[in-house]
Amino acid sequence: MTSASDLASLAALLADRTRAGICLALLDGRAWTAGELAVHTGVAPSTATEHLHRLIDGGLVTERRQGRHRYVQLAGPATAELLEDLAARTRQRPAPAQGLRAVTAHEALRRGRTCYDHLAGRLGVAVTDALTRAELVDQSGGFAVTPAGLSWLTDTLGVPSESLRNGRRPLARGCLDWTERRPHLAGVAGAKLCETFLGNRWVTRVGSGRAVLLTPAGRTALRDLIGLSTLD
Q1: At what angle do helices 121-133 and 100-111 cross, to 10 degrees?
Q2: C-beta of residue 174 within 8 angstroms of C-beta of residue 164
Q3: Would you tell me how many other CB atoms lie within 10 Å of the CB of residue 148?
Q4: Using CA atoms, how far apart are residues 69 and 109, in angstroms rounded to an integer?
Q5: What average pLDDT does the segment 145-157 reach?
Q6: What DSSP element (H or E) covers 70?
Q7: pLDDT for 169-189, tens place per residue?
Q8: Are residues 34 and 68 in the same domain?
């Protein structure tokens, strides 16, 4: 059973702005170096390394070495779900005055982004809604992929059926979107959708962060496949 001390220790890990910034950066699902995270959060490399040690010891982040390089990433989907869920429950405050670059970056994240390994933002919510209207996903009693949805994933998108079986991770779950305040599709199905969209270049990454953009080919494909005709 989790003790009050354990819960307080977890909360303390995210109570620091730099550590919170590192975790949010790692929500893109990719492995980062300590140097890249130092630049991203605006701290010295030694400071970033110190914070990473705390996050690794606390179980939120894992590390691996490849040659002389050391990479870190979130501990897994459950950690990503926790962070996105917490972000969605933060109280929205009026945005401070920002430069054009910051405003543009924020809008890009709202338009479309990855949440660890699945799609989020307006794009993720719109895709989820379209899948639901097409009766490929059922939200009536939580999130579930319908039998028609399973056939669509395997026969239409070409997702191997065995890759949809994961005993520890649900096939589908709702993830509360922190910008849209509505759920988008997560779980194994959400991850496979994102992987397929990126692989087909229906969606491309914008820069080095989490933002993604629906391509013209993607607009055509999603219109034809699930009836997604508009995306503001």
Answers
A1: 20
A2: no
A3: 13
A4: 29
A5: 96
A6: strand 69-74
A7: 889 999 888 788 888 999 999
A8: yes
Structure tokens at 150: 């399973």
CATH number of the domain enclosing 66: 1.10.10.10
Which pTM does this prediction carry? 0.73
Residue 94 lies in a domain: no
The rounded distance, in Å, linking the Cα atoms of 166 and 11 is 29
For 204, the 3-state DSSP assignment is strand
CB 152 within 8 A of CB 142: no
The DSSP output letter for 230 is -
Assess contact for 184 and 120: CB atoms under 8 A: yes
Residue 197 is assigned to a structural domain of this protein: yes
Query: Domain of 122?
Result: 100-226
Q: How far apart are CA 123 and CA 131, in angstroms?
A: 12
